[in-house]
Amino acid sequence: MAGGEVRLVDLVKRFADVTAVAGINLEMPPGEFFSLLGPSGCGKTTTLRLIAGFERPDEGQILLDGIDMAEVPPHKRNVNTVFQNYALFPHLTVEENVGFGLRYKNVTKQEARRKIAEALSLVRLEGLGRRRPSQLSCGQQQRVALARALILNPAVLLLDEPLGALDAKLRKALQIELKALQEEVGITFIYVTHDQEEALTMSDRLAVMSNGRVEQVGTPSEVYEEPRTAYVADFLGVSNLMDAQAAGPNGSGGCRVRLGEFELVAGQGELDARGTAKVVIRPERVRLQPQGTAGENCIPGMVERVVYVGATMQVFVHLAPGQTLQSWVPNQGEALPYAQGTPVTVQLPSGALRVLATSPSEAPAAEPATTA
Ligand SMILES: Nc1ncnc2c1ncn2[C@@H]1O[C@H](COP(=O)(O)OP(=O)(O)OP(=O)(O)O)[C@@H](O)[C@H]1O
Ligand SMILES: [Mg+2]
């Protein structure tokens, strides 16, 4: 069955005094890999449960392929869910687990066997059908859960942190597999995660959530390169976020910003911002130059700390105006000329420097960002 378009309209869900979902509007076209990304408690699981029909909205609508789901019970929605803990039946074999949902469908034994074999081959578990879940690795159990959800041919698959229990390496491998699988089956995936790297790697588009609201929706590169709020900039990977004073357009496509005594030009973001603002720059865009280098957006600083992380060196620099920022220098096998205590010039290229007007509702601190 084709389809798989999901629309959430002004969706609200309250639990006693907690508003878990506070007015969400989202549209996901058929076949999209869409992620809900946000810190613990921001309403990701509740949103999924509303779509699945396990919770009823207090306000708003859920439309699947244009049809309002208000009166449609979970088992009548063309949607299936993969849970974080897989929820496999321990006493059933892999085949029986995968075929479980078919018991309530009108399929012959032969047809069921064919579908089970197909689903197992889709997730590359051929030959393991007779085992029980306890005889499988975590990654294999995860694939059984996926096969069990896919066998019913849902138009939409909801996945709630499905890789959460796996170690980092297996997680990475399965991210790529899962994305390939989604492209192969062509159905809509709505994927919940609090891991920004995972969301960036896998999604066609993603929504960054905070406190039951969507802060920004876009492609991975849009939300990473063009965060609209300080919250999004901070949540999506490491960013250098600094308080500044904005003084509006500079007449040549940039915005004048003041960082302490230093006047800079920001070429991205809200270029007509004035007054208290934030500027943000990604660590991979910060350039370190020898002390005394002159040029646009150059600020003196002092190397505070150098952290070796393999592919890059993370250099923490204390800037003359008082802030500390990170610069990532690719590791090219040469010793870095920036030992702790070295005076340097930090260049913040205007094309990479973004102004964000300070929003009245300052977002709460995000979870610690993992370094990509
Ligand atoms: N059944 C419930 N009763 C009361 N409060 C609830 C219930 N379910 C969720 N909440 C609250 O709603 C908010 C959102 O919860 P939700 O489970 O959707 O968050 P989440 O984004 O999935 O977080 P996590 O990443 O930790 O899974 C939280 O404050 C949570 O405590
Ligand atoms: Mg959750």
Short account of what is shown:
By secondary structure, the protein is α+β, with helices and mostly antiparallel strands. The chain has 8 helices and 21 strands.
Catalogue the unreliable spans: 360-372
CATH C-level of the largest domain: Alpha Beta
**Under the CATH scheme, which architecture of the largest domain would be assigned?**
3-Layer(aba) Sandwich
Shape: elongated
Instruction: Characterize the largest beta sheet: strand count, sense, and whether it forms a barrel.
Output: 6 strands, mixed
- The CATH homologous superfamily of the largest domain is named P-loop containing nucleotide triphosphate hydrolases
Order of helices and strands: EEEHEEEHHHEHEHEEHHEEEEEEEEEEE
Q: How many DSSP helices?
A: 8
The structural class is alpha+beta
Strand line-up across the major sheet:
6-7-8-3-9-10
How would you sum up this structure, described in words?
The protein is of the alpha+beta class and 372 residues long. The chain folds into two domains: 220 residues, Rossmann fold (3-Layer(aba) Sandwich); 120 residues, Beta Barrel (OB fold (Dihydrolipoamide Acetyltransferase, E2P)), CATH 2.40.50.140. Helices cover 21% and strands 35% of the residues. It has a six-stranded mixed sheet, sandwiched between helices. Strands 13-12-11-15-21-14 form a six-stranded mixed sheet. The chain starts with 5 loop residues before the first strand and ends in a 15-residue tail after the last strand. The C terminus is likely disordered. Bound molecules: adenosine-5'-triphosphate (ATP) and magnesium ion. Magnesium ion binds next to α1. Magnesium ion (MG) binds next to α1.
